[in-house]
């Protein structure tokens, strides 16, 4: 089906372990391909996709890191790149889900925090140098086999220090926070705009229930921009290289968690093919 002349472009949203084979088939057929995150569960598989794309001579792959399309993160990116507030020094972030079932300790990094790994690297325009993961006291609401919450610490090559809380059973809503502390100002990710209601002797501003509600605009913008770019004959979203870097970082953070040590993150050199 992917090779058919009636197919212009391919969207891969199968289970993670099956991403590689369909992305490879699309590259072989010379079709644009949008692949949900992660590009592949292992960094080696991401690298195979990168190599195949380079060998094909044309950029075709986009990875579904949709936070880059969220209007709030885009505002932060504009503020940072304006330079008006100086350089970012520290980022304090949180990724909270109301509740998740059948989730394991490794999924907090590899399935959840992978979003921060990508969007924060894009926000500050720098690769990571080290990763650590620590376990605070666990919530009684975590199912067996899950340490929840967790805190991931990342440093970038220039020394920016990032902390991200992952709390997948916070039991109050879906809440994403990002505070960028710069030399001359602190930038905060906007909260979703929900009307404040006065009721029962309280002022209440609703919080989203899950990611599909919180990031609905990001998903819509992402797909429209991807379609526009395909029609114009280019890829301008997160690349296969971004997918590879995300997975290398997630694996380093997982190793840091399992060994309870600080792990150095080592990527291959970015090929010229991906330099814009
Ligand atoms: C899920 O796979 C997502 O992509 C959501 O955005 C994230 O909040 C959730 O933790 C993940 O499990």
Q: What does this molecule look like?
A:
The chain has 276 residues and is an alpha/beta fold. It is 36% helix and 23% strand. It has a seven-stranded mixed β-sheet, with helices on one face. Strands 1-2-3 form a three-stranded parallel β-sheet, with helices on both faces. Helix 1 packs parallel to helix 2 (43-56) and helix 2 (43-56) packs antiparallel against helix 7 (240-259). The radius of gyration is 19 Å and the shape is globular. The structure holds (2R,3S,4s,5R,6S)-2,3,4,5,6-pentahydroxycyclohexanone. The site of (2R,3S,4s,5R,6S)-2,3,4,5,6-pentahydroxycyclohexanone has 6 residues, from helix 4.
How are the secondary structure elements laid out?
Blueprint: E1 9-12, H1 19-29, E2 32-36, H2 43-56, E3 61-64, H3 71-82, E4 88-96, H4 105-124, E5 128-134, E6 150-156, E7 161-167, E8 175-182, E9 185-188, E10 197-199, E11 202-204, H5 211-214, H6 216-232, H7 240-259, E12 263-264
Parallel strand pairs: 1-2, 2-3, 4-7
Antiparallel strand pairs: 4-8, 5-6, 5-12, 6-7, 8-9, 10-11
(2R,3S,4s,5R,6S)-2,3,4,5,6-pentahydroxycyclohexanone is lined by residues 97, 111-112, 115, 168, 211.
Structure, briefly:
The protein has 276 residues and is of the alpha/beta class. The chain has helices at 19-29, 43-56, 71-82, 105-124, 211-214, 216-232, 240-259, and strands spanning 9-12, 32-36, 61-64, 88-96, 128-134, 150-156, 161-167, 175-182, 185-188, 197-199, 202-204, 263-264.
């Amino acid at each position: 089906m992917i090779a058919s002349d009636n197919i212009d472009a391919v969207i891969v949203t199968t289970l993670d372990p099956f991403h590689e084979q369909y992305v490879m088939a699309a590259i072989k057929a010379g079709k644009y391909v949008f692949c949900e995150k992660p590009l592949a569960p292992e960094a080696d598989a991401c690298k195979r996709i990168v190599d195949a794309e380079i060998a094909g001579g044309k950029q075709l792959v986009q990875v579904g890191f949709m936070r880059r399309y969220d209007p709030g993160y885009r505002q932060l990116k504009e503020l940072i790149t304006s330079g008006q507030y100086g350089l970012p020094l520290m980022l304090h972030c949180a990724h909270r889900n109301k509740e998740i079932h059948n989730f394991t300790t490794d999924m907090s990094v590899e399935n959840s925090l992978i979003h921060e790994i990508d969007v924060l690297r894009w926000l500050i325009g720098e690769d990571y140098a080290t990763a650590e993961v620590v376990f605070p006291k666990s919530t009684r609401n975590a199912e067996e086999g899950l340490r929840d919450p967790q805190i991931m610490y990342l440093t970038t090559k220039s020394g920016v220090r990032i902390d991200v809380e992952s709390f997948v059973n916070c039991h109050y809503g879906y809440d994403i926070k990002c505070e960028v502390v710069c030399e001359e100002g602190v930038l905060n990710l906007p909260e979703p705009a929900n009307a404040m209601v006065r009721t029962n002797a309280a002022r209440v501003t609703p919080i989203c229930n899950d990611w599909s509600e919180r990031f609905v605009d990001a998903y819509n913008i992402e797909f429209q921009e991807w379609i526009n770019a395909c029609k114009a004959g280019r890829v301008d979203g997160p690349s296969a290289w971004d997918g590879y870097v995300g997975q290398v970082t997630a694996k380093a953070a997982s190793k840091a968690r399992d060994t309870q040590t600080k792990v150095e993150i080592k990527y291959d050199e970015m090929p010229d093919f991906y330099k814009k």
